[in-house]
Amino acid sequence: GVWGHAASSELADGTQYTGASAGMHLYLPVASEMVWLGEAYAGTNLADIGGGIGQGYNVMTHQTIRGAGGWFEVAALPSSNHMFALGGSIDTARSADLVSGDRERNQTFYAVLRYKPLSSLQLGLEYVYWRTKYKNVGEGVANRFDLHLSLLF
Known about the structure:
- The chain is mostly beta strands.
- Helix content is 0%, strand content 72%.
- It contains no helices and ten strands.
């Protein structure tokens, strides 16, 4: 599929700016127990749609921030109660639109294991390796482990 957005915003001081994006997504069953999923996008002022690393407008330069990104995942269902997925993502903001210290790139790699012992109960374990590059500053890395319990109704 394909998608897009166009937006116009106004700050409290009367400053107006626009945003637009285009993207595509993929959902491809490759076997009865496996699916490939993904999305790619590019545009300006992407913060409202979750892109540009949450940066849409640079208050220092009074310009919108251009960015691009996407994600890809392979999910397998070895049984009706289990799901295992591996994936990764990248979200970038154009360096020329940023000032020192701004977030320039986020990258993640992740693994997910979910188990449904009951139709209304899901247990999950997730690991995410998260790396953020800051303009002219360096990188930060986070390793995140999440456990969750979801009641489905």
